[in-house]
Amino acid sequence: MLDVCTTVPGVAWPGIPGPFVSQLLAMQSQFRDSQWLAPDELLRRQTRQLGKLLAHAYDTAPFYRRRLDAAELPPSRIQGAEQWARIPLLTRGDIQSAHAELLSTGVPDEHGPHSTLFTSGSTGKPVMIVATGVTQLFWNACTLRDHLWHRRLEGASLAAIRSVTGDGAKPPDGTAFEDWGPAIRGIVQTGPAFTLSIHSTTNQQAQWLQRCSPDYLLSYPSNILALIQHSRRNSWRPTQLKEVRTFGELLEPHVRDAVRAEWGVKIVDMYSSQEVGYIALQCPDSENYHVQSESILLEVLDEHDRACEPGAIGRIVVTPLHNFAMPLLRYEIGDYAEVGGRCPCGRGLPMLKRIVGRQRNMVVLPNGDRRWPAVELAETKDLQEFPPIQQFQLVQRTLTRMEMSLVTPRPLQHEEESRLRGWIETAVGHRFDVAFLYVDEIPRSPSGKFEEFRCEVNSNDDAQ
Q1: Into how many domains does the chain fold?
Q2: For residue 123, what pLDDT is reported?
Q3: Is 389 domain-assigned?
């Protein structure tokens, strides 16, 4: 039950919220109903919004007028899924090369102030996205939905270990805030929030967590796993912790299992991107992911650009429904996911069974075929006789060569390296030439993320 904070002096209850909180509460009221709608009704409502977005993009963004005219698809002719599927996919390269022509020349004033977001892929080439006050409102509304779905406690504290712009949140102290931010401020009275830069050592993070003693912890899956391993080695755990929240990277099942076994709490994952906002949130009743259909249209396509059936894995294509500053129609974001059926919870929001990864996380075999590697090294029983491999990263450099960076107490012996090459062959499905590099640390990307496997062959420069 919400106990809304009042903005009127002398009124304690019921609370009278301010304009921004009123908007968030009105959206949550609609979200509570729309989550239970049948898929056909959800699509009908999305189609109504898509019509407005299409007309706006065609009239005010030169890129889309040219693209839709070339496909003989003016908005008046796009009446259903068949015509929609004929709109060419938007790629990261399109955004980079045609950025100015993607910008709307007529954003309604009511959509609020514009903001600029940057995201860079594995090659570091940035993509710049322009958003609005409306898109930020939907971000906050989905954040609030996530808190409400998972019944996070009033008065609880939150610790976040993540990428931070500028010089803030440096170790050892990080930064403290009075509450959890605008998505929940004035709606639920939270405890404090603490932030520490991801560019800190695991030991610094562990000491910081022991000082903060948070109820909830937010970070990247790879960082959570590093903290779990540190916890095992040093016999400590965050005693007040009630839940771990993850974002930004692929969450492997063994990370969920490790958090349950070591800390006795569950992981709640979220799937979002800088370009489009929230894509899917973890179901409050399971580990499935519910697409946030009120803010995006999501398609999962096979290699022939056809919609995937439940159980199949395909490429994710996203259309944010409310970005009138820089419309992104059928944006191929670079991720792959497994389509789910109807979630047992009964919600009508489309379901993703799991997020699989990005194209750059697929092995490219010498014949050009791609496959997903199985590189969960930390949980591989065959390698338990090795000296502790504290961290690793496997990078495919060419069609025949890979490099594996290793953080270990000592270099592996020749026989150990031979066995590790055998494990790599099994994990990636081919015998590559493998070079081992022994390093003190494997740095994260500037955005704070980490990938156990990355392919640099025919990269499409996708973002994460």
Answers
A1: 1
A2: 43
A3: yes
Q: What is the model's pLDDT at position 125?
A: 63
The pLDDT, as a whole number, for residue 122 is 45
Q: What is the mean pLDDT of each run of 10 residues along the chain (464 residues)?
A: 74 82 95 96 95 96 96 90 94 92 97 87 69 96 97 95 85 95 92 94 94 96 90 92 95 93 97 94 98 98 95 96 98 94 96 88 85 63 61 91 91 89 88 94 80 77 39
CATH number at residue 447: 3.30.300
Cβ atoms of 175 and 209 closer than 8 Å: no
User: What pLDDT shows up at residue 212?
Assistant: 96
The whole domain housing 400 covers 363-455
> What is the reported pTM?
0.87
Residue 393, domain member (yes or no): yes
In a domain, 450, yes or no: yes
Please check whether residue 416 lies inside any domain of the structure.
yes
The radius of gyration of the chain's CA atoms, rounded to the nearest angstrom, is 23
pLDDT of residue 289: 98
